[in-house]
Amino acid sequence: MTKMLHRAAERLFPDGTNRYGALPALLVLLTVVSGIVDAVSFLGLGHVFVANMTGNVVFLGFALAGASDLSARHSLLAVGSFIAGAWATGRAAGRITAKGRLFVSVTAAHTTLVGAALAVVLTTGHRGGEVQAALIALLACGMGMQNAVVRRIAVPDLKTTVLTFTITGLADDPFGAPTVRRLVSLAAMFTGALCGAALHLGPGPAAALTAATALLATATVAALT
């Protein structure tokens, strides 16, 4: 698996400038995870995002204006939990200076949080205000951790949750090596959203969260090797 991931990472830098090892390929997996968990949260937890905080800020405005199908409480909870996860990663980065070790530690913790969300769904379902609040908190905290560690690693064009600048770069810049990474990032997010929605609407949210947990666990183990 390690060799395959390294080859995939090298293809994301066709100009031969990859200095991140297999991490670029692992970030593509995390982008798929973002699409999956946002599909679960939007479709099953009251129209809220756990990865896309821009959307939650907008939803908060809509909810306060009186939109009946949106929850200001859920939007605030998602943003607050996301901030908590990012804060925790910042504190961990003060103790773990090696970026590879930080990625492993944070992704392992993220795996645990999504696994906990899966356990909640399996035992109590995903309906009811308190259950939904717990799921939003767990998933958004994990995504805050993911976003913070990705920001610290700073692999160009692979942000895992934000695509606005990615799309802008595709349109604004001439074709080149960054175009490959941007297209892959878009495809990964789309794939995650499509698969997450299909699993959530079909077998149910547990199936989608199982897929997200498996991808995070795979990224954790692969980063160790």
TrEMBL record:
It comes from the Bacteria. The keyword Ribosomal protein does not apply. The chain crosses the membrane at residues 21-50, 102-125, 131-150, 183-201, 207-224. Keywords: Membrane, Transmembrane, Transmembrane helix. InterPro entries: DUF1275 (IPR010699). This is YoaK family protein. It comes from Streptomyces abikoensis.
